[in-house]
């Protein structure tokens, strides 16, 4: 009995060992990122210009938004289980920078730049647009954070979510809901085209400094974002920026009309931020990881830690400071949200040049909001010392591995763009199982 089970197990195991699949020759040209036990990562596309959001179309082609260069479509092939590209096509032009998504039926493509949003008819078989652009939005050019992440709901077709960040580290315009600053809003794009202003949209969340990663839980339709928090933070003149604020993973309810306490609410920025290093914060009575504290200096007359905790929605998960999270991809059963972070420039010891996962069950993270261990590392820069200081942030120097876009293909392989090196990695399981199907219960151990 035991013997036959063992044999049955052997019979179903895939013979493919992913680490034997070839990477693009000579890649990467820098210290290879560390990868969690059980996973493999290899470069399958090189030579890109600042790749940002990734997505798969209805024919399984990989679309890569190259910041101010083009949107490129790659034909994918699964050569004995080793994924590779077999050709590419320029789909859209250099006018775009970050946001891109497809409607639920896969037939309409939306893309953004700092100011505008357009849509095009899209033919996935031919990897090309089929109509001239339709303009949906203009007048967003009012911040120095330039990304306008787009999310087209697959659960409630016709709903387009747009995230717009702050214009400064601490931007007090965000205190006014009518400013449109540091918000996520929803727009109806199911009807005849109309050119919206950002403030025409329904507020999904506000007081969100710069929530670049946006995703919809594919099982229950819950909306999630990750937020890039403030730099150079002080409290009572004490510099606390090395350990606070934590970056935030926020929940925004559903788009199907079901009420939630979170939706449309204020998440605290610019007055309040998520606590990470409690012990370094002066007057830390009552603070704990994930609780919001008042950062000081506001025009809000009754601003205080207790107001931050009473009147604003806390992060569902708090991450270490300055990781700069930038994208989110749920697996198909929504048991994990895989996230990318571009990494810190505001830390003495660089951190956050990573791909990590947060385990989910029943639509919510498994870890409590007070946890410091929710992020399970999957991939991390192999040379953090190359990422010290402000120059690394702007792409000078040798800090090459900076994860940006992330997406699953229809077979459950995970893809990650590396912005400064201009590459796309595929992440797979060593044993040939799909990443999509993996259950992440215990923190992974990073291997070189
Ligand atoms: C909306 O989605 C939630 C989560 O899946 C579900 O519980 C609720 O019943 C849905 N509401 C409607 C009106 O369909
Ligand atoms: C996160 O915020 C910092 C500080 O404003 C900024 O330098 C960085 O570019 C932001 N990250 C992204 C991905 O926009």
Automatic annotation (TrEMBL):
> Taxonomic lineage per UniProt?
Eukaryota, Fungi, Dikarya, Ascomycota, Pezizomycotina
Pyrroloquinoline quinone-dependent pyranose dehydrogenase beta-propeller domain ranges (all copies): 33-429
Q: Which residues cross the membrane?
A: none
Name the UniProt record assigns to this protein: Soluble quino protein glucose dehydrogenase
Matching entries from InterPro entries are given as: 6-blade_b-propeller_TolB-like, Beta-prop_PDH, Quinoprot_gluc/sorb_DH_b-prop
């Amino acid at each position: 009995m035991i013997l036959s089970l063992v044999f049955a197990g052997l019979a179903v195991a895939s013979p493919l060992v992913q680490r034997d699949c070839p990477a693009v020759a000579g890649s990467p040209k820098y210290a290879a990122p560390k990868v969690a036990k059980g996973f493999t990562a290899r470069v399958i596309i090189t030579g890109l210009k600042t790749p940002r959001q990734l997505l798969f179309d209805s024919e399984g082609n990989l679309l890569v938004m190259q910041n101010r260069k083009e949107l490129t479509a790659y034909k994918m092939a699964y050569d004995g289980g080793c994924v590779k590209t077999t050709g590419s096509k320029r789909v859209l032009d250099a006018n775009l920078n970050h946001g891109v998504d497809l409607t639920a039926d896969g037939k309409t493509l939306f893309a953004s730049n700092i100011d505008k949003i357009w849509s095009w008819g899209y033919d996935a078989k031919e990897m090309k647009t089929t109509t001239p652009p339709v303009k949906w939005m203009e007048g967003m050019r009012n911040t120095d954070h330039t990304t306008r992440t787009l999310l087209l709901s697959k659960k409630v077709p016709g709903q387009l979510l747009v995230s717009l960040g702050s214009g400064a580290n601490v931007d007090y315009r965000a205190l006014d809901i009518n400013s449109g600053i540091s918000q996520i809003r929803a727009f109806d794009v199911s009807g005849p085209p109309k050119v919206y202003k950002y403030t025409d949209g329904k507020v999904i969340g506000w007081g969100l400094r710069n929530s670049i990663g946006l995703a919809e839980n594919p099982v229950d339709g819950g909306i999630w974002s990750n937020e890039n928090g403030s730099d150079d933070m002080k409290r009572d003149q004490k510099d606390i920026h090395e350990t606070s604020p934590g970056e935030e993973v926020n929940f925004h309810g559903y788009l199907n009309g079901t009420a939630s306490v979170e939706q449309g609410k204020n998440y605290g920025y610019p007055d309040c931020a998520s606590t990470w290093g409690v012990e370094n914060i002066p007057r830390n009575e009552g603070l704990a990881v994930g609780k919001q504290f008042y950062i000081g200096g506001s025009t809000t007359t009754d601003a205080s830690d207790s107001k931050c905790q009473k009147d604003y929605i806390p992060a569902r998960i708090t991450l270490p400071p300055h990781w700069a999270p930038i994208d989110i991809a749920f697996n198909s059963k929504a048991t994990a949200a895989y996230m990318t972070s571009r990494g810190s420039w505001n830390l003495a010891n660089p951190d956050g040049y990573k791909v990590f996962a947060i385990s989910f069950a029943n639509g919510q993270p498994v870890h409590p909001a007070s946890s410091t261990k929710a992020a399970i590392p999957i991939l991390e820069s192999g040379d953090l010392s190359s990422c010290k200081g402000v120059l690394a942030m702007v792409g000078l120097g040798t800090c090459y591995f900076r994860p940006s876009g992330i997406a699953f293909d229809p077979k459950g392989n995970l893809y990650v763009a590396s912005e400064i090196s201009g590459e796309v990695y595929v992440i797979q399981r060593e044993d040939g199982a799909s990443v999509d199907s993996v259950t992440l219960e215990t923190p992974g151990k990073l291997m070189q």
